[in-house]
């Protein structure tokens, strides 16, 4: 089994599955793939701001602000002022079950992996994924990985 091909297949199928769910799941029907990308970044980047999104995506802050306001109006995210600088607004996902359908797949996969592999194998797999996270690109640092 070739590692690179297997990883590419995984990402491809994961993306296709998410796109499919976005067309069928009630909580995702109104989202575009672009909107989901914004939500993913907000979900994973601590203290995410419009400026953070603008820098990560290479998009003008005005364009990011428009998209964020759409997501706020749709009830997917909230803005909370920073404790240290009230002019800075941090972005957070709301309690709306945006990713429940997608997360359910992950729960099933995790359960199956735990049943089929030893804890040592799972730990080694996690270490391998951490190497991928660290080396995958300049943005891995925003997740706290060096």
| Fraction in helix | 55-70%
β-strand percent reads: 5-15%
What kind of oligomer do you see?
single chain
The tally of helices reads 6
Give the uncertain stretches in residue-range form: none
Q: What is the overall shape?
A: globular
Q: Could you give the order of the helices and strands? A: HHHHEEHH
What spatial order of strands do you see in the largest sheet?
A: 1-2
* Mean pLDDT over all positions: 83
What distance lies between the first and last C-alpha atoms, to the nearest angstrom? Answer: 29 Å
**Rg computed from alpha carbons, rounded to a whole number of angstroms:** 17 Å
Structural class: mainly alpha
Q: Biggest sheet, open or closed, and with what strands and sense?
A: 2 strands, antiparallel
Number of strands: 2
Kindly describe this structure.
- The structure is a single chain.
- The two termini are 29 Å apart.
- The protein is mainly alpha-helical.
- The mean pLDDT is 83.
- The chain is globular and about 50 Å long.
- A hairpin with a 7-residue loop joins strand 1 (77-81) and strand 2.
- Strands 1-2 form a two-stranded antiparallel sheet.
- It has six helices and two strands.
- The relative contact order is 0.10.
- Helices cover 61% and strands 7% of the residues.
- It has helices at 3-24, 33-44, 50-57, 61-73, 100-116, 119-135, and strands at residues 77-81, 89-93.
